[in-house]
What does this fold into?
Amino acid sequence: MKCGSLPAKADVREQRTFYESILAPLIKSAQNNECVLLFVDASHFVMGGDFLGYIYGKVRRFIRTFSGRARYNVLGALNFVTKKVTAVTNDTYITSCQVIELLCDIALEYSGKPIRVVLDNASYQKSYIVQHV
It folds into this structure.
């Protein structure tokens, strides 16, 4: 069995209000082809990190990995209706510049259609430069 956790600051009533007043109408609008609804998030893959699986036995086993800690970052936007992913990738860090690049790609891809983007609370998505481009 695998356990999960809830964010410590989660307010159930506030989340329900957000869903009912903002997100549910956006979902319905996207399903009716009145707008494009995209959910944006980043994933950060580290190659060469420690092996995270466990094999139980009497002897400890070591598995060779790549030297160093090479990163591979993906900032992606998932279209709620079509499930199409638009992504920006790099091997350094996700910053405001990658958010702007992704938003420009989205604007070109869905040109002429109303676009609604749901972002998480990452600081690079809320930066001054992203809000004023």
